[in-house]
Write a structure and sequence with these properties.
The chain is an all-beta fold. The protein has 1 helix and 31 strands. A 6-stranded antiparallel sheet has the order 1-10-3-4-5-6, with no helix packed on it. Strands 9-8-7-2-11 form a 5-stranded antiparallel sheet, with no helix packed on it. Strand 7 and strand 8 (about 90-95) form a beta hairpin. The radius of gyration is 22 Å and the shape is elongated. The protein starts with a strand and ends in a 5-residue tail after the last strand.
Length: about 425
């Protein structure tokens, strides 16, 4: 059992997020629990191994719930999240072993000490427990939370937590084991693909800035929980991988900046095509990359220009250009449904920013500024369904950053339309 150590009381909207692996007891009634409150008022918010998501009282009687989520076995990692609004309403969100999320609305959520545990006398492993004010999760958030966040000039956007990236498949430097590989670009494989819900992350290959380790560009497919490398693709010792972009046909693109190439691979690792940046007539190095499904094209930026270009993927024909609100864009994400292009930027050691641009009018629509604990901001992915912004942060490589970890922080954000 994990104990928060203090009561979670009148702080407005807040949420508890945990991930869990059962290690004993195969009973279907066993599973992940977030417990809250005291005595007869205690409530247990559960995601059981048989797929049940709901609420139990302190006598283990069901108050609300149904078998609605994916089942899971021993050793499979799942997630459980409880969100509470100031009026006591909210929802339970269960994340299955394949990353599928199931949400159930609940009411009368108490306050008090928080526990993460396992039901039915099972032993388990709690991978993390994050308890945060949800300052950007809902419009009716208690104003005192916002005031607290801005008191010292801090942004209201605060991280929900972060996941440390896995170690290199073959450890190149045992001194950095446990800090994750040096991440760059980020994207997620879409529905109806072999790796649906899994993450694609670029890997620069170097270990710590200035330590003399060579470039060893690669990309890794990570499990939906971001903790396991499922497949790796190596691109050579002289390549620096920057942007990555997933396509809905089991293929992906990578920007190899030092080689001035944008390459197209299938998930088996076969090279399908190469766009040569110099041959296309552009200066600088291709860096940021995002797939535009509506136009079968790639948005591409260099790291030293506000210009973002949309190239036809089949031959590199220029389809469109826009001018971003930053002259130092790093990584990109494109929302085809809304025509919004997202670009990360920020100096190492300071909170990063995400600029949002409407491509149809070539205008800036806003930003997520001063993202705390994104002090070595790299890749970006926005899940509009859950309003979750996921970043890659190579803080271990740039050791002036805090946290000094190669990790993926997550933020709950207000959405631009």
């Amino acid at each position: 059992m994990f104990d928060s150590g203090e009561d979670i009381n009148d702080i407005g909207a807040w949420e508890v997020d945990t991930s869990y692996t059962a290690t004993s007891t195969s009973a279907s009634s066993a599973g992940a629990v977030i417990s809250l409150g005291a005595g007869a008022d205690r409530r247990h918010y559960v995601y059981l191994r048989n797929g049940y998501v709901g609420v139990l009282n302190n006598s283990n009687a069901a108050l609300d719930g149904a078998v609605s989520a994916a089942t899971y076995d021993l050793s499979e990692q799942v997630g459980l999240r409880l969100f509470r609004r100031p009026d006591g309403t909210g929802y339970i969100e269960a994340t299955g072993p394949d990353g599928t999320k199931t949400r159930r609305d609940v009411a009368n959520i108490p306050t008090g000490r928080v526990y993460a545990a396992s039901r039915a006398n099972a032993t388990c492993k709690i991978h993390h427990l994050t308890i945060v004010p949800a300052a950007c999760a809902v419009a009716d958030v208690d104003q005192r939370v916002t005031a607290l966040e801005t008191l010292a000039g801090l942004a209201a956007t605060v991280p929900l937590g972060f996941t440390v990236l896995p170690n290199y498949p073959a450890a190149r430097d045992t001194a950095t084991n446990g800090f994750g590989f040096t991440c760059t670009g980020l994207d997620r494989f879409p529905t109806d693909t072999t790796f649906a819900g899994c993450w694609l992350v670029g890997d620069d290959g170097r270990m710590i800035e200035g330590d003399g380790t060579p470039l060893a560009g690669a990309a890794h497919i990570l499990s939906p929980d971001k903790r396991t490398i499922l497949r790796s693709f190596a691109f050579g010792e002289v390549s620096s991988v920057q942007g990555v972009a997933c396509v809905d046909d089991d293929t992906f693109w990578v920007a190899l900046s030092t080689l001035k190439e944008i390459r197209h691979y299938n998930i088996g690792g076969t090279l399908l095509a190469t766009l040569e940046w110099d041959t296309l007539g552009y200066t600088g190095d291709p860096n940021g990359l995002a797939w535009d499904s509506a136009n079968s094209g790639l948005w591409v930026t260099t790291a030293a220009s506000a210009t973002a270009r949309l190239l036809l993927a089949s031959d590199g024909t220029l389809l469109d250009t826009v001018t971003l609100a930053t002259t130092t864009p790093d990584q990109l994400h494109y929302d085809s449904a809304n025509g919004l292009l997202y670009a990360t930027t920020g100096s190492n050691g300071t909170p990063g920013t995400v600029h949002v641009h409407r491509v149809s009018t070539d205008t800036a629509v806003g930003s997520y500024a001063s993202l705390r604990h994104a002090e070595a901001i790299e890749g970006i992915y926005l899940d509009r369904e859950t309003a979750t912004l996921t970043l890659t942060n190579d803080g271990q490589y740039h050791n002036i950053a805090r946290p000094a970890l190669n990790c993926l922080p997550e933020y709950r954000v207000s959405l631009f339309t």
